[in-house]
Amino acid sequence: MRILTAILTIVSAAAISWAQDAEPTAATLTAEKAFAEAPEDVITLIDKSGRLDMLDYFHAGSDKTTSSPYGSECAILQSNNEPSAQGNSSLIYVSNNGLVNILFVLNGNKPDPIIGIIETSAKPIPDSGVRFYDKRWQTPAKPILVEPTLSDWLIDAKDRQVVAEALPFILAQYGFDPETGELTMIQQMTEYFVKGDQDEVLAKIKPQLTYKWDGKQFKLTSKE
Q: Is residue 105 a contact partner of residue 31, using CB atoms and an 8 Å limit?
């Protein structure tokens, strides 16, 4: 199931009361705390003051949006702020210019949490990228995720040349589930081409890749 797409279809029911969340300890880094404190060169979509307004509106159950300095309207869609058993949490925020963002925290209950930000441009075809930071908002010394190569997407390695010639790139929409610690990549090339065009080639690549957080990095666990 497309995690991000499913979330967007239940926007009206997505507000989760802060009072209902289990209170994390003072040392726990949650998605909401990271969202509020992130430097403005990390979250460039909206400044810190605007982010605090977004959190207030979300917890009040309001559908009011917050204006960014760049003219876009921003809002929080969902917050899974109660850390999972692994200390993971997440928050989804969007803007009316077609950007969908997922900020998530890994190992939030440990001394060395990792913050990830998935940015998805929803128009014209969804395509995502992800960045990672340590608790000081620096790029981690060791890679957290090794981005997939064409080989990872192939159903059969013998089709590499045919696919490489027809598909010089692969668009994918990313999602994250804090409960399972899984980061998913759903390829969007079937949306990129007109139906009937490149169908034979598209049948040679996987519809989705799944990465599992092992406490230190994401490991590719499924190529189904």
A: yes
To the question of pTM greater than 0.90 for the whole model, the response is no
Q: How confident is the model at residue 2 (pLDDT cuts 50, 70, 90)?
A: very low
Closest CA to 136 of 29, 47, 50: 29
d(CA 56, CA 198): 47
For the chain, counts of helices (H) and of strands (E):
7, 10
Give the C-alpha separation, 209 to 220, whole Å. Answer: 7
- 115: its two tokens: 């913050």
pLDDT of residue 131 exceeding 50:
yes
Question: Whose CA is closest to 83, among 1, 27, 138?
Answer: 27
Q: Say how many C-beta atoms besides its own lie within 10 A of residue 127's C-beta.
A: 19
Rounded-to-10 torsion of CA 188, 160, 197, 207: -30
Q: Which segments of the chain does DSSP mark as H helices, in order?
A: 3-8, 31-37, 48-59, 150-153, 160-166, 189-192, 199-202
